[in-house]
Amino acid sequence: MKVILPNFKFICSMIKRIAFLALFFLVNYSYSQTISGKVLFKDNGVDFPIEGANVYWLNTNQGTITKAEGEFNIQKIRDVKSLVISYIGFKTDTID
């Protein structure tokens, strides 16, 4: 009976540690959201993708550049709601 009790305590402590780590990773995973989109220029009713446009979060240094088809992916930052899109020769636009 004495041999089983120390093993039981060890197993319980390991389960608690694993549960804590799982909870920690789940909380961090829930905050990592990716925003995807496409930057287009409309000319005479035709949409043209803009390659190399800057897409960044307002008042931060977190941003990305659009790909050849105007597509972008950017990680969401907590408590920042405004996305800024800029390109040379175009008016800078802020999206809330």
Describe the structure.
This protein has 96 residues and is of the alpha+beta class. It has two domains: 1-31; 34-96, Immunoglobulin-like (Sandwich), CATH 2.60.40. 29% of the residues lie in helices and 33% in strands. It contains one helix and eight strands, in the order αββββββββ. The protein has a four-stranded antiparallel beta sheet with strand order 5-4-7-8, with no helix packed on it. Strand 2 and strand 3 (46-49) form a beta hairpin. The termini are far apart.
| Tally of discrete structural domains | 2
Mind telling me which CATH architecture of the largest domain this is? Sandwich
Major sheet? 4 strands, antiparallel
**DSSP helix fraction:** 25-40%
End-to-end separation: 65 Å
Q: Write out the CATH superfamily name of the largest domain.
A: Carboxypeptidase-like, regulatory domain
In short:
This protein has 96 residues and is of the alpha+beta class.
Which properties best describe this structure?
2 domains, 4-stranded antiparallel sheet, 96 residues, 1 helix, Immunoglobulin-like, two-stranded antiparallel sheet, alpha+beta
